[in-house]
Amino acid sequence: RVQLVESGGGSAQAGGSLRLSCAASGYTSNTNCMGWFRQAPGKEREGVAAIYSGGGRTYYADSVKGRFTISQDNAKNTVYLQMISLKSDDTAMYYCAAVEGRSSWYCGLRAMFSYWGQGTQVTVSS
Questions:
Q1: Which residues neighbour 42 within 8 Å (Cβ) at sequence distance 6 or greater?
Q2: Per-residue pLDDT reduced to its tens digit, 36-89
Q3: CA–CA gap between residue 91 and residue 43 (Å, rounded)
Q4: Which of 29, 34, 43, 93 could form a disulfide linkage to 79, CB 3.0–4.6 angstroms apart?
């Protein structure tokens, strides 16, 4: 089973930056789709960004496009979410997710992710 552990959350002021990390273990496939999701209190889970390991193709929610960047370090089996120009609306629990053995065309924010991390809290003060 794939295990995902998020880190890097914390508090920041509006306009500030944070970088989240997701350390993965237990992969049995070299091709996978990784995603970042978030959920604020009283809100539904929202897809933020996704990346395909095969070629680095990325996907972003409109609400974060231009501010957030998803990237990966395959050597470290780690996926990152660099967040800049943070807004108070970005406050949420952020979760890392993964699904293995998929083609690039399958990857995206609406992919069926099988594995989830425990989450890391991001709090943005206005």
A1: none
A2: 999 999 999 999 999 998 778 999 999 999 999 999 998 888 999 999 999 999
A3: 11
A4: 34
